[in-house]
Write a structure and sequence with these properties.
290 residues; alpha/beta; Rossmann fold; two-stranded antiparallel ribbon
């Protein structure tokens, strides 16, 4: 009877935490200053957290798109944490087609920080469909400010999140599907008016007339989508500062999202995995003095 009970507990844990779901992390090359946009260190930290949970097989491809032809074989989810814009790893060569074929199979897809930005005419419609939204130049903005989150939706990615605030380069005013169809905002707040850019400046990342029209309105900084192909996606605009992953709720939001797009039942308290200062200090890119 005791052995049967132990077996049932282990089976339940395996079912809850993924039954060996495969997560492919694509970490962009070194970018920005020391401690900023640490793509590789961030992805390796997420991998370590998933290993602690168990039930996941994750692989991190550093320095951009994987060279291995079989990199995506058996993948349940693909998460990109990298620079974006014209240099976004997903829009080079035939990679949108490669990802599109994975999406048709229902593979999950997530983008973190700068990776939410692609050119409108090259990757825009794809990220809109696959992850639920994207940063569009001359429409979205990328200020650094302290965002405060006090309320969360009834959604698995929000499981276990508690009110928090953190200073980051929080992008907002994303391009979303009309009527937010199939998209659920996860992290929403009202940005300070001065973060919308200088009125009339209308540069690629701030001050455009459209974003100025929405002063005082809430903006979505993280979101999730349930796609018609059966897959799931998310976008998270924070993540400029590596120390942000030491904030329990920011880390939990990402881990919950990764589990959710891989179609894992997220625990009621979320993916609650602790990390240490030593964990955060590992795998940082050699960018000079810190």
């Amino acid at each position: 009877m005791k052995k049967l009970l132990i077996s049932m507990i282990l089976l339940g844990a395996l079912t809850t935490f993924g039954a060996n779901k495969k997560i492919v992390f694509i970490a962009g090359p070194a970018s920005h200053g020391a401690g900023d946009q640490e793509h590789r260190a961030g992805c390796l930290l997420f991998q370590k957290c998933l290993d602690k949970v168990g039930g996941f097989t994750s692989v991190v491809y550093s320095n951009g798109w994987p060279k291995e032809a079989n990199a995506f074989d058996g993948a349940d989810a693909v998460v990109i944490y990298s620079d974006g814009g014209d240099g976004h790893p997903a829009i080079q060569k035939d990679r949108l087609q490669v990802l599109g074929e994975l999406m048709e199979k229902g593979v999950g897809f997530g983008t973190i920080h700068y990776a939410v930005e692609v050119p409108k005419d090259k990757g825009g419609k794809e990220l809109l469909a696959w992850s639920g939204g994207y940063f569009e130049t001359f429409y979205s903005v990328n200020p650094t400010w302290t965002a405060e989150f006090t309320k969360f939706p009834e959604h698995s990615i929000a499981n276990g999140l508690k009110p928090f605030k953190f200073k980051d380069e929080w992008y907002y005013h994303m391009r979303f599907p009309e009527g937010m169809k199939k998209v659920t905002p996860i992290l929403t707040t009202v940005p300070p008016e001065n973060t919308r850019g200088r009125p009339g400046a209308n540069d690629a990342h701030g001050g455009n007339p459209e974003v100025q029209q929405h002063k005082g309105e809430p903006e979505h900084l993280m979101w999730a989508i349930e796609r018609p192909d059966g897959g799931r996606g998310f976008g998270f605009t924070g993540g400029h500062f590596h120390k942000g992953w030491g904030e329990p709720n920011m880390r939990k939001a990402i881990l919950n999202a990764v589990a959710w797009i891989a179609k894992v039942e997220v625990p009621a308290n979320g993916m609650d995995v602790a990390v240490t200062d030593e964990d955060l200090a590992q795998n940082l890119d050699p960018k000079g003095r810190r």
